[in-house]
Amino acid sequence: MANGKIDSTDSLLPEFDLPAGCTSYPLPADEVQKPKPTGTGEGLTPTFPSVPRRTKHSKVPHRTDPRLVSRDVFQSIYDLRNLDTVFATLEDAPVDFLHDADWVHRDVNACNVVRSGKMAKLDDFDYAKRMDSKTTHELQQLTLDFMACEAGAHNYLFELLVCRPYADEHDCPFRFNPLHDMESVWWMAMWVVYYHAVQAGEPLSEQLEYLHKLFPGRLGERTIAFFAALKFEALPTSFVHAGYAVEYMRREILAAYAESEKKMPPAYANPLKQLHSVFTDQLASAVAHCRGISHFSLSAKRQLEDSTSEDRDSKQAKLQEVMRSDAQ
């Protein structure tokens, strides 16, 4: 049953045909459940604030399907407890294969990168689309902590670092590209090293403070953190080598964005190829330096209230200052 109705889903790939040679396995339909006597308020379909409402006039099929078989077989990044296994999962996640097929995922997050044994997979393609697709729509990505900064701002940010003649001014609409998927992978790696400690219940005070700056629950502050070098002193000693790898990845993402946005629309093919190679090497390095290290989640809470317009204006000015200094 789904939303109080019989779920007749027989395929987990809505509106897409399987590639030639692939075998499909239809799912059995739900059995009709007999109604039971209900009292006041019983038997009604509950509404959960975590489930997004269907976007009005959106052309994207927003489907909430509770029958995801992979959830019963695979573990998400959230569920893994060995640091080397987490980085191996990020390394093995087939994001590069998706990009080689000219598709972008657009919702890469810690729930959608999963593992079972020695196998890692990329899950949940509800928002995936072809790179050359001209369709636009309102993308309501739920995982703000892993969203690419440009995707959140719905604007190209790195073209501010490129000086163009006045004649080269453009009116290019923003479109999601594969570099944004790669940035989401990087945010996951950041979350792994800064949101965890070696021993349960014993986080470093400086680590907690820096964690709030990295994942404040608001886009503007995340973008400022993205442009700033990482604080290795805020990490547990055994996490520092992984931190070096993550910092190297950050610098290469910035370089890929700056290179791709020298022209509009962004020419990301060559920077993307280089970035895939860098990510593979750095994640493999993180795996090698983190073997046998178990990690525990920090008991950290953050303030999610929205900032005032004055705060937002000052943060925007600070962001532009950081971007200009980084370009120099």
TrEMBL record:
Start and end residues of each stretch annotated as Disordered: 24-62, 303-328
Fungal-type protein kinase domain: residues covered: 51-193
Cited Pfam families: Pkinase_fungal
Protein name: Fungal-type protein kinase domain-containing protein
Organism whose genome encodes this protein: Pisolithus microcarpus 441
